[in-house]
TrEMBL record:
NCBIfam families: HTH_metalloreg
Domain HTH arsR-type: 1-90
Keyword Repeat: no
Organism of derivation: Candidatus Nitrosotenuis uzonensis
Keywords from the UniProt entry: DNA-binding, Transcription, Transcription regulation
InterPro entries assigned to the protein according to its UniProt record, in alphabetical order: ArsR-like_HTH, HTH_ArsR_DNA-bd_dom, HTH_MetalResp_TranReg, WH-like_DNA-bd_sf, WH_DNA-bd_sf
Cited CDD domains: HTH_ARSR
GO terms for MF: DNA binding; DNA-binding transcription factor activity
Protein name as it appears in the record: Transcriptional regulator, ArsR family
Length: 100
């Protein structure tokens, strides 16, 4: 996967929010993500499927539940760095209210 493909896969609000939650919690079920995101289950499942197809998340069966996790440490670190960088940029670069 090249950089553009990776960014296209994560550069959607719900998918990025899923990745942030997984990065903080190590692994979560669809139901956990639905409750945290306050989104419909089919929508969350759709985005998880896309992230899994891109190799960004993994899924493992635990009885009747499927648990999702970020596929590797590099992706987890990248999500952390994106969040940290965006927070810094929002406080330093943006002078227009509501810009970022």
């Amino acid at each position: 996967m090249n950089g553009i493909t990776l960014l296209k896969c994560i550069c959607e609000e719900t998918r990025f929010n899923i990745l942030e939650l997984l990065q903080k919690n190590n692994e979560m079920s669809v139901n956990d993500l639905v409750m945290k995101l306050k989104k419909d289950q089919p929508l969350v499942s759709h985005h998880l499927r896309l992230l899994k197809e891109c190799g960004i998340v993994t899924a493992s069966e635990r009885g009747k539940m499927t648990m999702y996790a970020i596929a590797n440490k590099d992706i987890s670190r990248m999500i952390s760095e994106i969040v940290e960088t965006s927070e810094k940029m929002a406080t330093v670069c943006c002078e227009t209210p509501g810009c970022c």
